[in-house]
Amino acid sequence: MRVAATEISSLDVLLVEDSAGDVRLAQEAFRASDKPIHLHVVGDGIEALSFLRHEGTHKNAPRPNLVLLDLNLPKMDGREFLAVVKSDASLNSIPMIILTASDAKEDVAYCYQHHANCFVRKPGQWSTFESVVKDMNKFWLFMVELP
Amino acid sequence: MDILLVEDSPGDIRLTVEAFRDANPAVHIIVVRDGTEAMAYLRQLGIYVLAPRPDLILLDLNMPKMDGREVLALIKADESLKLIPTVILTTSAEEADIVHSYKHHANCYLQKPVELQSFEDLVKSVNNFWLNQVRLPQQASV
Known about the structure:
The complex is a heterodimer.
Chain A: E1 11-16, H1 20-31, E2 37-42, H2 45-52, E3 66-69, H3 78-86, E4 96-100, H4 105-113, E5 118-121, H5 126-142
Helix pairs in contact in A: 1-5, 2-3
Chain B: E1 2-6, H1 10-23, E2 28-32, H2 35-42, E3 56-59, H3 68-76, E4 86-90, H4 95-103, E5 108-111, H5 116-133
Parallel strand pairs in B: 1-2, 1-3, 3-4, 4-5
Helix pairs in contact in B: 1-5, 2-3
């Protein structure tokens, strides 16, 4: 079913992030959004895959409208998770935004090569982090048509 | 910053070029009118031999000759071109077009707004997000 960003009442966003501080920052930045968002948080790539595949404790997990993905994660890292999701025909239409502290050229190229929808650098400072998340929200939640 | 606009409607070309001029004068828009010309541009064929590689592609879906769906598939199957973020910008709000575009690795899908003000807002937000917040492949860690 189509979920037009402009008509939608609430959105499910999956945040794949292992740093407690960054999770907290993202939660606060999302709370400030004008749109009701259910932010689901998982800490590594294995758990993120279980979430998308409704396995184990994630049996009733919704299909997220958007995934925010850190690259450096324990167990299965973000690079591997990205490649798995984007080569899975039932999951590859879910937009994946890379949100990472890495600014390495190789990471940026790898992510676009593996069909990340975009690559956003996580800023070090809270005020900048908030404004990046706000701009990202404004674009992805209000302008873009999500599948 | 070079943006390749693949669009056949003269009105929409005009609107897009003007909206970018207001949003960010540093953006250079290159316009091609159908999919065949878009691929010639990206592959630097014929008159496009010296064409710069665009930082971003804005792609309409419904076009003469080769349509946007086919162009998207060709771009995303090419090891080098697939890195260029490709944004669908179309009047279509069909579920089938949206899902098809994401499945074929469009970087995002935007519906062209009908009203002039909304169109300008959309261009402004593409500029704010894609050209200011997003790391594009070639500008990573200079």
